[in-house]
Write a structure and sequence with these properties.
The complex is a heterodimer of chains A (about 180) and B (about 80). With about 180 residues, chain A is α/β, with parallel strands linked by helices. Chain A has 7 helices and 5 strands, in the order αβαβαααβαβαβ. Chain A is globular. Chain B has one domain: Translation Initiation Factor IF3 (2-Layer Sandwich). In chain B, β3 and β4 form a beta hairpin. Chain B is built from 2 helices and 4 strands, in the order βαβαββ.
Amino acid sequence: MDIEKELADIKAKLEAMPGKENKLSMVIFSGDLDKQIAALIIATGAAAMGMKVVLFYTFWGTSALRDPAKKVSGKSFMGKMFGFMLPKGRNKLKLSQMHMAGMGTAMLKDLMKKKNVASLDQLFEAAGMLGVQINICQMSMDLMDLKREEMIDYPHLNVCGVATFLNDAKESAIQLFI
Amino acid sequence: MSDYTVAKTLDCKGLACPMPIVRLSQEIAKIKVGEVIEMFTTDPGSLADVPSWAKSTGNAVLENKQESGVIHFFVKRQK
């Protein structure tokens, strides 16, 4: 067989291989404070390392993107219930362990301040500056009757579906699920 | 050994992971290729993290020194 043809063949195959981009895709499924902090530390770290970063917020994770100052009308009964039961924004998230009716979470936040660990507010600000893309799962928003208008003001925010996530994940060198 | 012409100084003392490399990535963009940024950290993790960052981004850590809990890096922008 002709070597040049073979090389062109290999090149085409390499082009089509998944995971070739210097990019991180992460599913943020959990609405736990500790997991969200870990996710944002990895995301901002990756962006600082020069990687493209796409975060796909789904299910309980979407609570972190609610803006407590925004109110929307026209929600269904179940939507109102969800709105009431779910944490209103990233500063209302609870620890996955040792929450202890709020005491544990408050203690951790206090400790983070003392040890100069970036808060979720600071991490979101850094993520925005570094160009971290946030995609919200449309289906989760529909299910819990969350409206686009009640989400935070963030410079790179989109609403999309699983196909967009899969497309990003396929191109990424790293994929994570938190 | 440390006679570099420093184009910029970055103070990350007291900052925890991931802020030192976040700040470094932002500040190094403000100097020219070939110039050197000096950086101070107190986070022991940055001893491993700054070289990892440099390796991944194609820049170079010229030197690091430790004096009484403060780590002093010299990082050269290469691209």
